[in-house]
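Bumping with the actual sequence this time:
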Amino acid sequence: MLENLTIVLFHPKFPENVGSAARACANMGCPNLIVVQPRNWDLGRASALATPKGVDILSSMRVVDDLPTALAGFEFVYGTTARTGGWRKGLWTPAKAGSTIAGQMGQGSSVAVVFGPEDRGLTNEETEICGKLLTIPTSPEASSLNLAQAVLVVLYECFKNVMEHPGEEPAQPAPTNLATHEEMELLFGNLKDTLAAIDYLKDENTDYWMLPVRRFLQRAPFRRSEFNMIMGVCRQVKWIADKAGRTTDGDAS
C-alpha cells in the first residue's frame, strides 16, 4: 500500500520503540524501515514488540551510519518535530502531509519521513536538510508522544489518503526525472558557497541565513535538468567572482 514510503528512525534509544515502529509499518502497509545509528540495539527486545508481521520488516530494515546516507536516494524528505518557532516554521499537520505524500507516491516518487531520537528529537541542523517539517498537534500539558505512536499517526494519514484514491499509486518509477535529496543537498551547498563568494551571506550563522533560500527552492520539486542548470549558474558566478578577486588583487599591487 505504501511501497514508495520509508520510515527513517534517527538515533533511536530503545530497541522496543524500533520494534513497535516496525509493527506500525506493518499495520499501515509500509514495508520500508531505515534506522540510523541505533543505540543499545537488541534484536530480541525489538522483535518482542514487533509481532510476526513487524519482525519481517525488522529483518529487512537498513541500518546506516548517518542521516545523509539514509536520505540519499529519496526525492522528497519530511522531518518531524514537537518543537516549534525559531528555525522550525511553516509546520504541516500529519493530515496535510499525508495528502501531499499520497500524491507524490501516486506519481511514483520515493518519500522518506524522519523521526528523531526519543530523548531530544531532531536538532536544527537535522531538520534543516528535510524539505518539509510536520508536527502532531497534542495537548500542551502532554506534548511528548512515544516514537512508535508518532510513526503510526503519520503512517495512518498517508494510508488513509491512499485508500481514498485507490489505483493512483503506480508500480513504476516517476517519469518526471526529479533530482534526489542527495543532489539537492549538493545544490544547497554549492549555492551557499556561491552566495558567500559574492558576499551575500553574513559571516556568522550562514546556515540560518540560508534557510529562506532552502525553503524557497523546496517549494516545488526540481527536475534534474533544472538542477543541472542552477549548478551551472553557480559555477559561472563563482568563476566570475574569483576572476574579479584576482583582478582587484592585481590592481592593488
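The C-alpha cells above came from a reply further down the thread. The two ends are 68 Å apart (CA to CA).
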